[in-house]
Amino acid sequence: MGRLVVVTGAGSGIGRATAVAFAHGDTRVAICDVRADRIDEVARELGDRCVLAKQVDVSDRNQMEAFAGDVHALAPAADVVVNNAGVGLGGPFVETSLDNWDWVLGINLKGVVHGCHFFVPNMIARGQGGQVINVSSVFGLYGAPYASAYSATKFAVLGMSRALRAELEPHRIGVTAICPGMIATQIVADGRTSESSGRFEGRLIDRFKSRGLSPVRVAEAIVDAVKTNPAVRPVGVDGWMIAAMTRLAPTAFYRVGAAVSRRLR
pTM for this one? Predict the structure, then answer.
C-alpha cells in the first residue's frame, strides 16, 4: 500500500495543484475544502487516486476531527499532511473588525493547529516518520502594511512550524513552512477587504492573475520539500527576494515596502 497524503483547502489554487501533483504512482490522496462544489470537481479529476473528498471548514475543530477520523479509517496515519487552507484579508488595522480577525485567525492559524492536532499524534504512534507541510506566506517573513491580520496569521504559522519541527525531529517527522510570493489563485477574490481598500480589490485581483506564479510551482515546491525537508521554503522570485532581504537588510526593506504599499493605494 502506497503513501497517504492529506491536503486541506484542495478545492482550488495551491491545494488543488498539490493534490494533483501527489496523485500518481501508488500515492493516495485525501482532500477537503469548505466549498463542496470545488472539492467534488477535484475528486472527479483525481479519480481512483482520491480515496476521500469531504466538505470541511478547517476552523471547526469538530469537522476536522471527523475528517481525520475518516482518514484514519483508511490508514493508521497519514504519511504527509499539507495544511494549505487559507484566506486573504486586507485593509488598515483600524478598519479591520474583530469579526474579521476571528475569521482569518480561525482559518489561517487554527486550521493549521487543527490539522497538526488531529493528524500528528497518529504519525507519532505509528513510528514510521512522516512530513507536515504548513503553508505560510512571504507575509510570514515580512509584515506588510495594510495586511496586519493576514501577516499575523502567517507569522504564527511560520513560528509554530519551526517549534514543531524541533519537537518532531526525534520521531523522524519533518515540518516545513512554505512561503509563497504572489501566486495566481483566488485568494484575493475569495477574501475580504476593508471599505477603504475595496476600490483597490479589482486592481489587485488583476495583478495576481497577470503577475502571479502558477500554483503548480508551489505544488512542485511542496512535493520537493517532502523529499528534502527544509525548515522554510520560499517560492517564486519575490518569495526568495523577500526572504533574503528580511534577513540581510530588514530595516531598509521595511521602509521600501511601506513606501510601495502607500503608492499602490
Answer: 0.90
